[in-house]
Amino acid sequence: MSPDDVTLLDAYSRAVMGAVERVGPAVVKVDVDAGASADDARPSRRRRVRGGSGSGFVFAADGLILTNSHVVDGARAIRVLTPEGDTFDADLLGDDPHTDLAVLRISAPRPLPSAALGDSTRLRAGQLVVAIGNPLGLQHTVTAGVVSALGRSLRARTVRLIENLIQTDAALNPGNSGGPLVTAQGEVVGVNTAVVLGGQGIAFAVPSATATRVISALLRFGRVRRSWLGVAGHETAIPRRVSRFHGLDGDQGLGVTAVSPGSPAERAGIMAGDVIVGFDDIAVHGADDLHRLLTDDRIDRAVPLRLLRRGETRRFDVVPAELP
Q1: pLDDT tens profile 7-34
Q2: What CATH fold (topology level) applies to the domain 227-322?
Q3: 160/135 Cα distance (integer angstroms)
């Protein structure tokens, strides 16, 4: 190995070690107890139905922890283990399955080491990143890689898209979920959330830009507020001649297959068979477009909705409610 290679390797190692030294003390193990089965009241017959573990990190020294929603889903009890070996019971302050994020709180007798959330919008493909977590129960495991791509999308358990994900080739395994993705400067730019089964070196993290917004909402409301119309549907092709005649932006819309009784959509007069092509004067080509527009600022506000009904365009004013 040439002296230049040794120098380069040392620089790489120093960058990784520096990131771990800054963020590692804030990374925790999250153990979840889902309780006992309710199918038999006798204690001797009860069985454990589900439990598991993941990762998280302290982002405020007074005991606030960020992790994945799917890590704590259905938990009856949550315990947090720090790198120093201390164990704490944790309270779930709020979670958002649509972005797969959750905030926990523990009561520690002293301020805890915390990690700073960085600016994920400044990331570049090829940038060095470090993942710290507890894969397969192996506490405080470090892996390193690069940002493979930016702006990826992935379906959450709720079917909504999680957008602007960071793709990385840092090795992740079950148990890494909820752990931080860190730059060489020791800033948390992502929350590790998923791997592609059967893929090698393909993993995803929720960007810190999303996490910052979600944390604020969870601490304020215990949830992320979104608006809701009460329609179910799928992407539907619109004949090109119809699209051109009505001046539509594209040849697809959201075909409504069902309308929830008593929903904002029903009250506005929307019916199954309609094709939604616009919401608040923004084109809609499918369910993902509509979900993206159903934000908290549209709750209880009259919003124009444009649709096709039997080949003719119709305009309705709909007042979205808060997503139940």
Answers
A1: 656 888 999 999 999 999 999 999 999 8
A2: Pdz3 Domain (2.30.42)
A3: 26
Q: What is the CATH number of domain 3-38+47-106?
A: 2.40.10.10
Domains of the chain, residue spans: 3-38+47-106, 120-221, 227-322
Residue 289: name the closest of 231, 224, 211 by CA.
231
SS3 112: coil
Q: Which amino acid is at 210?
A: T
Distance CA 111, CA 93 (A): 19
Tokens read off for 69: 């929603």
Residue 287's φ and ψ, nearest 5 degrees, are -60, -35
CA-based nearest residue to 188, from 173, 206, 162, 176:
206
pLDDT in tens, 242-283: 999 999 998 999 999 999 999 999 999 999 999 999 999 999
Residue, of 36 and 266, whose pLDDT is higher: 266
Torsion of CA 76, 82, 85, 87, to 10 degrees: -30
Give me the amino acid identity at 296.
D
The fourth-level CATH superfamily of domain 120-221 is Trypsin-like serine proteases (2.40.10.10)
Helix (H, G, I), strand (E, B) or coil at 88: strand
Q: Are 118 and 208 in contact (CB under 8 A)?
A: yes
142 DSSP β-pair partners:
132
Q: Which residues are catalytic?
A: 70, 100, 177
- The dihedral through the CA atoms of 89, 94, 97, 99 has a sign that is negative
Same fold, 3-38+47-106 and 120-221: yes
- Angstrom distance (rounded) from CA 273 to CA 108: 56
Q: H-helix or E-strand containing 253?
A: strand 252-259
- The Cα-based distances of 219 to 64, 73, 152, 225 in angstroms read 10, 18, 27, 12
Give me the phi and psi of 181, to 5 degrees please: -105, 125
CB-based burial label for 89 (10 Å; 0-12, 13-18, 19+): exposed
